[in-house]
Amino acid sequence: MIFKMMMDASGEDEKPVVRGFLKHLVLGFAGGVAVGSILLGGMLLSLQNMDLDMPLLWIFAMMLQCGPVGGLIGVGIYLSRVTQRDSDEDVDDKPSPGGNAPEEVEFDQVVIRPNSKSGGALKPSKA
């Protein structure tokens, strides 16, 4: 239902991006569940000599806990492909209010003072 709402709310030029986002989300979740199943199988094989009275719900929970992490990884992979990283010019490279660009220094603002005698210089103690 939420996937359909996302597809309906997107414009024609955004539909391929949303479709790819949802595809990577679902595939990442499925991959996470598969990894969780493999880890559960490995754990149960390593503990096969123990008497484990685990409810079936715990087994499913152990498998499913890797699903959301896999979904986030899938979305991160897709978003790193979609964003343009090869652009040389960054938005923050230009000076603007709130930007991270260094402020340009005008040399008429820099004041260089010659060495002057300091009035309150410390003198060594005789103790």
In a nutshell, what does this entry contain?
This protein is an all-alpha fold and 127 residues long.
What would your notes on this structure say?
The protein is mostly helical and 127 residues long. It has a domain at 34-82. It contains four helices and no strands. The chain has helices at residues 2-9, 15-46, 56-64, 67-82. Helix 2 (15-46) crosses helix 3 and helix 2 runs antiparallel to helix 4 (67-82). It is flat. The termini are far apart. 7% of the residues are buried.
Structural class by sheet pairing and helices: mainly alpha
Q: Characterize the overall form.
A: flat
Average pLDDT level = 77
Radius of gyration: 30 Å
H/E order of the elements? HHHH
Amino- and carboxy-terminal Cα gap: 85 Å
Query: What portion of the residues fall into strands of 2 or more residues?
Result: under 5%
Low-confidence parts: none
- Sheet of most strands: none
DSSP strand count: 0
Number of helices: 4
Fraction of residues in helix? 40-55%
